[in-house]
Amino acid sequence: MKIIMLGAPGAGKGTQAKRIADKYSIPHISTGDIFRANIKNGTELGKKAKTYMDQGLLVPDELVVDLVVDRFKEADCANGYVLDGFPRTIPQAEALDTALTAIGESVDYAVNVEVPDSNIVARMSGRRACLNCGATYHLEHIPTKVEGICDVCGSEIVLREDDKPETVLNRLKVYHDQTQPLIDYYTKKGILKEVDGTKDMAEVFDAIIAILEK
Ligand code: ADP
Ligand code: ADP
Ligand code: ZN
């Protein structure tokens, strides 16, 4: 099963993608996580990506596409995967289609997690991330067991630099300009599915599973 998660920054794509990946034992591929790991390890790619990410801009397509295409050729992707944060532009979506068509495959579902802009800034200012293992929490909605400490790995959790309100507004604008057109793109392909992302985490998950198992 090959699934794409669509939605604004903070809509809950990552939260749901992890749960889908667990349920179906398929990898969760998050381009944001891949970039953050590169930044942490001080790679050339990380240095380049950081200059864009800090401003809330997209990393250029040519730095993203090969990364993802190489990733899904790995053995653990044989039964599918959940793509979270990719594609984010029409050229990325076209490159994905070309790469999949070349190996006789295609995406099964593009799940759009719908959350209005008015909810997003609050979601993002409450988001806390573990930069060590990638786990994500929310101060009010999805708190850690011990305040400030990741449940999974025990590291300190932080407000991501790009989750500060001024950067979030930039990211929302970038989302509407460059990523939202993908909703049309996948609607035309007949694989777009919508879920209401304002519901609580478990309800959103149930709605997604109902779609995947119909
Ligand atoms: P969120 O989960 O809040 O939407 P991500 O972790 O997916 O954020 O992405 C963080 C940042 O990484 C983005 O703002 C962008 O700068 C960069 N990024 C991630 N994925 C892509 C992509 N597919 N194309 C371009 N830039 C990306
Ligand atoms: P995205 O990957 O789309 O940027 P995340 O999955 O990181 O979004 O979620 C953004 C923030 O909102 C996180 O702090 C997360 O814990 C929280 N969150 C996710 N889903 C929900 C939900 N259904 N209701 C309330 N908060 C949520
Ligand atoms: Zn952690």
Features:
Rossmann fold, 8 strands, alpha/beta, 214 residues, 9 helices, 3-stranded antiparallel sheet, binds zinc ion, 47% helix, 5-stranded parallel sheet, binds adenosine-5'-diphosphate
Tell me what you see in this structure.
It is a single chain. This protein is of the alpha/beta class and 214 residues long. It has a domain at 2-115 and 178-212: P-loop containing nucleotide triphosphate hydrolases (Rossmann fold), CATH 3.40.50. It is 47% helix and 15% strand. The chain has a five-stranded parallel sheet with strand order 2-3-1-4-8, with helices on both faces. Strands 6-5-7 form a three-stranded antiparallel sheet. Strand 5 (127-130) and strand 6 (136-138) form a beta hairpin. Bound molecules: adenosine-5'-diphosphate (2 copies) and zinc ion. One adenosine-5'-diphosphate (ADP) is lined by residues 9-10, 13-14, 31-32, 35, 52-53, 56-59, 64, 85-86, 88, 92, 162, 171.
Q: Beta-sheet strand percentage?
A: 5-15%
Tell me the total number of β-strands: 8
Q: Biggest sheet, open or closed, and with what strands and sense?
A: 5 strands, parallel
Instruction: Give the % helix.
Output: 40-55%
Instruction: Label the overall shape.
Output: globular
- CATH level-3 fold name of the domain at 2-115 and 178-212: Rossmann fold
What is the rounded distance between the termini? 13 Å
Radius of gyration: 16 Å
The unreliable regions are none
Task: Identify the bound ligands.
Answer: adenosine-5'-diphosphate, zinc ion
CATH architecture of the domain at 2-115 and 178-212: 3-Layer(aba) Sandwich
CATH class of the domain at 2-115 and 178-212: Alpha Beta
Q: Average pLDDT across residues?
A: 96
